[in-house]
Amino acid sequence: MAKFFESENGSVEQSAKVLIFGFIICLIFAVYILRLFSLQVIEGAVYRKQSQTISSQVKTIDAQRGEIFDRNASMPMVINTDSFAVDLIPAEIPSGHYDSVTSRLASFLGISKNEIDRKVPAYLRRSYTAVEVRSNIPFSVISNIAENITDLPGVSWRSKPVRNYVETGSISHVVGYVGDITKEEIKVMYNKGYKANAIIGKTGIEKQYDSLLQGVQGRESRTVDVRGHVLSDAPIVEPPQMGKNLVLTIDMRIQELVEKALGERVGAAVVLRPSDGEVLAMVSYPFYDQNLFNDDNAAAQYNKLATSPNNPLLNRVVNAAYPPASTFKIIMSTAMLAEKAFSSAKDIECSGRVDYGNRIFHCHQKWGHGKLDMKEALAQSCDVYYWIVGRDYLGVDKISSYAREFGFGESLDIDLPAQQSGFVPTAPWKERRFHQKWLGGDTMNMSIGQGYTLVTPLHIANMVAMVANQGKIYRPHLLKEVRDPATNEVIESVKPQILHESNIDESVWREVQNAMRYTITDGTPAFPLNNKVVQIAGKTGTAEVGSLDHWHSWMACYAPFNAPVEEQVVVVVLVEAVNEWEWWAPYATNIIFQGIFANQTYDEAVNSLPANVRDVIRSRKHTRGRAE
User: Fold this and answer.
1) Which of 223, 445, 497, 588 could bridge to 475 as Cys pair (CB 3.0-4.6 Å)?
2) Does the predicted TM-score (pTM) go above 0.90?
3) Per the omega criterion (within 30 degrees of 0), is the bond before 312 cis?
4) Distance between CA 84 and CA 200 in Å, rounded?
């Protein structure tokens, strides 16, 4: 009996275990069924959409960059040229044939196989992702590849526009150039929508307004399997949108005139409208051809330019700083009159020297100018007059203050990606920098534009503009309009912006203007600036560099004198000391004014100047001097 009950109890326990196990199995199946129902019915739409996204292979279609025009907006200075890029999908090359296919492709492209191997490393060779092997490929090469495409599995090509700089020469510093985005740039610009294969502006307008010029890339999507193999021949295409067209303030006729007037001399020249800050011409020599950067050896071309003597990549109008020399006497005259520090009618005796401390300061006129008032001192550029006014009547604090009033020592905020602020010294600065007290000799040097003061040619142009405009400086700018590439409709026009407005009395400006006009008619530049077409007002400057045999030559002017400011232009020319000395800046300035106001080319302008001036111009050599 005991055995019977024992057997019966064991059977019951075994049955209970079976029931429990069966329940667990049913529960698991129920959970799986519910989960499948949820995936297919409740969340099916979401996963189907995700599945389609995962199975879509998307290629970008490059957008054409906007074109760039001069102020007349008739013919573009920068366009896009149809070109091609060759891609390689490594996984479409049959096993064992990679080396033979890439070697053959390299021969068509005129590059080494190692270059393709660098772009398609071993870990990518089973990938269905297209790799760009080379860009800027002419149609003739594409034709050869197409004729041999059966021997080139995995090879394809696509249209990829290339930047074509129609206008080269000195405009290169204004327009700039484009290039492949670098790893460092992508880290900064990724959040702005830039991708790893983007072409971006590197310098000039191309960089400053890259976001406007870029356009919007198109997309081409196809259905692929999990390995990326194309399953559908019918792509879905979203066309690209071209970037905006830009119209600059530059007048290419004037730009070419200024370029030829400066000649092959290391230096810079700028033409500015004082009434609104528009830059009509900006020339820096030496310059370069932006189309060099379209080649595959762009890096080598860049290194060659970057290491070249006198740096052709440098825009000397805004990125190089120089002593202002005697052009600074315009600021000194304004400060003296505005502060009533010294009467402009009162004479100072120039004997050709000033003894101060243990030094002798020599005027450029060694035997002296005699007695001069302010007008004569500015016209003859008498150093003695301004040494005494600066040291005894103004002082460093007031001189520094008025220099800043004219915009010196500050960025002029022109629409270029880089620019020098220049420098205006003060007594506390010298004590911090050199642990030396500011001396009267420092004030004397500063009073004639020597010493520590540094400016760009654009600073000098704004200084002259402030006189012409009687105390008002506008922000210099190069962009005039933004236009729709399809309709040519003006989307945005750049409005003049006041950079600084002085409260100096109008009578002060009129007296300085008259003194600048007298400088041209009766002063040191009277001969080279002899002009029958337009009345000019201005000031020369010669900055000593290193020794008495090396001088920067400045000419800073505006014209027509006494015309409404809306009709006036400012011209500033700088010829660096590396050139053979020929005092070229005033002659170049005269040619520029003649060409602008007589609507003439360089040759026509030279031929129209007075015979004695023309003869001197023709005798000057248009050589590079020590530029190279």
Assistant:
1) 497
2) no
3) no
4) 18
